[in-house]
């Protein structure tokens, strides 16, 4: 596991994700525009709830509010939400159909 997540490729991807988070959130808000996505596609925000991450959870809840999205805080979970809570992620995905 360490060999995979310690690779330069993973670090570059994580840095890019972190650096562009605000831009992506803004683009989603513009797309949402208070009217929903084209075709009425639902938006859900799933957030991990690692220990001592209250600020992170508040930011994710605020993002969901801005996007008029459903919000779920999943615990225990870390950055790899789909690995830590696969059933909850699958349920949210299937419910969006």
From TrEMBL:
InterPro entries: AB_hydrolase_fold. This is AB hydrolase-1 domain-containing protein. It comes from Streptomyces aurantiacus JA 4570. The lineage of its organism: Bacteria, Bacillati, Actinomycetota, Actinomycetes, Kitasatosporales.
């Amino acid at each position: 596991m360490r060999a995979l997540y310690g690779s330069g490729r993973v670090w570059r991807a994580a840095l890019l994700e972190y650096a562009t988070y605000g831009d992506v959130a803004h683009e989603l808000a513009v797309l949402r525009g208070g009217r929903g996505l084209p075709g009425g596609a639902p938006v859900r925000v799933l957030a991990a709830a690692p220990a001592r991450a209250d600020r992170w959870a508040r930011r994710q809840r605020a993002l969901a509010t801005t996007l008029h999205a459903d919000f779920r805080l999943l615990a225990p979970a870390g950055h790899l939400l789909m690995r830590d809570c696969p059933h909850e992620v699958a349920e949210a995905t299937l419910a969006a159909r």
